[in-house]
Amino acid sequence: MQPKDAWGSRWRNATLPMAKHYMTVAAEKQSLVCLAADRNTMADLSELVQQVGPFIAALKTHVDLIDDWSVESWHDFCALANKHNLLIFEDRKFADIGKISRAQMSGVYNIRAWSDIVTAHLISGPDIVDGLQAGWNDVGRQGGVLLLAQMSSRGNLLGEDYTAKVVELGSAHAGVLGFIGNGSRPVELAELRRQVGEQKLIWTPGVNISVGDGEMGQRYGDPYDAIAAGSDCIIVGSGIHRANDPRSAAQEYARLSWKALLER
Ligand code: S5P
């Protein structure tokens, strides 16, 4: 199916090239799944991507939680992700002032050189988005920033007023791909979609086919409900990488997410 047919008004209204890139990959793979690849060794990570690569559209990393990280092994890992046509999303949750965020895109991990998407909190103000975009620009690459408008963890401090402010400032910024919305509460997600309108994407962690509470304050909601409420991508970690059979789990999340998009 053509992405424009699957995505409708979201496709027509998106302005950032990275948004269309994501929607194209998702339509090709018939999957709105971003794998949260929270594994601690390079071997485990690569094995996981080999298993589930065909069923996911994006790969979310936490580059700083890997025990045996090296420049060479990461280079190979990114090549594997690219082979599977995956967008690489470093969930760094940047929060500093613009110029420091720009500098943090380089350093040991050199995130600007391999990430397509990064997350940021808007707590320091909108210049952080310029800083991150300048980071990609410094190496002649393009990317998109996802701003945390809501969080899935219990007791988080991102209240309604804060969310509204993030949406207001983020919607006006060309470098913003979209927002992180809370998948454990479809009602909150629907309200977020209402505020965001059609132009920006909403990506959603805190989803699992077995809904309820996760470890250390994580909360889960249903993946189908999240897309139906207006999310454009479900970020799934344990639901896939802790499953007995990650491959069939990924396939099932992909099936549900695609069905939800078409029915939406
Ligand atoms: O509010 C949030 C934002 C994010 S990006 N809640 C989250 O859980 N995340 C991330 O999503 C978190 O860092 C983790 O990598 C993933 C959820 O993993 P799961 O195992 O709970 O599905």
What is the gist of this entry?
With 264 residues, the chain is α/β, with parallel strands linked by helices.
Identify the notable features of this structure and list them briefly.
alpha/beta; TIM Barrel; 12 helices; 16% strand; globular; binds 6-sulfanyluridine-5'-phosphate
Q: Can you put this structure into words, describing what you see?
A:
It is a single chain. With 264 residues, this protein is α/β, with parallel strands linked by helices. Helix content is 44%, strand content 16%. The protein has one domain: Aldolase class I (TIM Barrel). It is built from twelve helices and ten strands. Strands 1-2-3-4-5-6-7-10 form an eight-stranded parallel barrel, surrounded by five helices. Strands 8-9 form a two-stranded antiparallel sheet. A hairpin with a 5-residue loop joins strand 8 (212-213) and strand 9. Helix 4 runs parallel beside helix 5 and helix 6 (98-104) packs parallel to helix 7. The protein is globular and about 40 Å long. 6-sulfanyluridine-5'-phosphate is lined by residues 36, 38, 91, 119, 151-153, 180, 205-206, 214, 218, 235-239.
**CATH fold-type name:** TIM Barrel
- The number of distinct helices, counting runs of at least 4 residues, comes to 12
Structural class: alpha/beta
What pattern of helices and strands is seen along the backbone?
HHHEHEHEHEHEHEHEEEHEHH
CATH arch. level architecture: Alpha-Beta Barrel
Task: Describe the oligomeric state of these chains in a short phrase.
Answer: single chain
Task: Provide the domain count.
Answer: 1
Query: How many beta-strand elements?
Result: 10
**CATH level 1 name:** Alpha Beta
Given the C-alpha coordinates, what overall shape results? Answer: globular
Beginning-to-end CA distance, first to last residue = 15 Å
List unreliable stretches of 5+ residues: none
Main pleated sheet: 8 strands, parallel, barrel
Strand order of the largest sheet: 1-2-3-4-5-6-7-10
Portion in strands? 15-25%
| Mean pLDDT figure | 97
Percent helix = 40-55%
Radius of gyration, in Å, reads 17 Å
> Which superfamily, in CATH terms, is the homologous superfamily?
Aldolase class I
What molecules are bound to this protein? 6-sulfanyluridine-5'-phosphate
